[in-house]
Amino acid sequence: MEKEKLSELLEKMESGTATAEEVAMYNRLYMHFQKVEDWDITTMGERAEIEEELYAKITAGIQVAPKRTGSYPFFKYAAAAAAIFMAISIGIYFFKANHSPVIREQASKLVGTHDRSPGGNKATLTLANGTKISLTDATNGDLVKQSNISITKTADGQLAYKVSGAVKRPGNAASEFNSISTPNGGQYQVLLSDGSKVWLNDASSLKFPTVFTGEARSVELTGEAYFEVSKNEKMPFTVKANGMQVLVLGTHFNVMAYPDEKQVKTTLLEGAVKLIHADDVAFLKPGQQATITENGAGYQVSKADVASAMAWKNGYFLLDNASLPQLMRQISRWYDVDVIYAANLKDHEFVGEVSRKYSLMKILKILELSGVTFKLEGRTLTVK
After folding, report:
1. pLDDT digit string, tens, across residues 162-208
2. pLDDT tens digits for 16-44?
3. 368/58 Cα distance (integer angstroms)
4. Structure confidence by residue, pLDDT tens digits, 100-129
């Protein structure tokens, strides 16, 4: 049934009648089959080779229609070449404000000679005494040992806190706090001393105690992070972010609280959470999302697009009717560029899935198919 639905959606995309929601559904169904089925190498060639060939021909303005196989429903018409590449290789589709699909076959107008690589595991650890350790440059292994607490950098980009035995503190000394911060183009994972796991997105920071004591566990977040909190009913876990508190016992959730975003979003995947912001309180069930805007109008609880909220952790930009400014803020953080706008641009909406492993130039050349052009000079990206 899913294959039949995929074919039906494909026909609508070819005829230009697909809505933004239908294109998003197509992209997700396609990505599903892409993960569970094999390419017919005898007729298609290696997948990576096909992607590169399509990419080269489309950006050069050549109309091309790939072969069809029994396993994959490809577009039949050369006029859909740009959409072919977006659906197969990158999985992104573009819409004007009226939701009409935009497909353009033309040579790239991108100005700029220097590409920028995608982000990676980069972060700085700040100890309680103010000492800073670059996790980007530090060798793997033990970084610090103190009071039965060992802090280790692992080979897979994780900072791990491990407690062995009782932690001795003089008198009634409070817990020592460390913080980890990622730059633009950085991400990192932290294993806290209680066994909770935190994935930190780019341009974010987390302040936390080296060991949790007392009757509660509390951390402070700026930016975005995904949490898998170890269960401890006797010590509730609290995340403080941008004036909001997320209270949990043990659960999986994502918090997006960037200072330059107009909304703070909390998405619950598992368990239950209680949210507090000033006098507003909200409770979430799995699959729900709470949004609070900068004007402080209270929480709006709705069904969550979990795939979209978790895309960054899974290595994608997943765009659900995202506007051009929303997309460019993500690109600015991940590729560490300053984005400026040369003119008032028409509204665009973007639907689809884009790998965060692609270089900046590769993504920009595809985005140009929506009618937007770019100029990259050093770290400055001009949109026009």
Report:
1. 988 655 554 444 578 999 999 999 999 999 999 999 999 999 999 99
2. 676 666 666 665 555 544 444 443 333 33
3. 11
4. 333 333 344 555 557 899 999 999 999 999
Closest CA relative to residue 188, chosen from 330, 312, 358, 319: 312
Please answer whether residues 273 and 266 qualify as being in contact, where contact means their C-beta atoms are separated by less than 8 angstroms. yes
Phi and psi, residue 314, nearest 5°: -90, 5
Token pair 């170890």: residue? 230
C-beta of residue 345 within 8 angstroms of C-beta of residue 368: no
pTM for the predicted model, two decimal places: 0.75
| Closest CA relative to residue 127, chosen from 70, 191, 181, 68 | 181
CB atoms within 10 A of CB 245: 15
Interatomic CA distance for residues 373 and 237, integer angstroms? 46
- Please give the pLDDT value at position 26: 61
Beta bridge partners of 341: 383
Contact 338, 97 (CB under 8 A): no
With vertex at residue 5, the alpha carbon angle to CA 3 and CA 8, rounded to the nearest 5 degrees, is 110
Contact 23, 93 (CB under 8 A): yes
- Nearest to 119, CA basis, from 357, 337, 376: 357
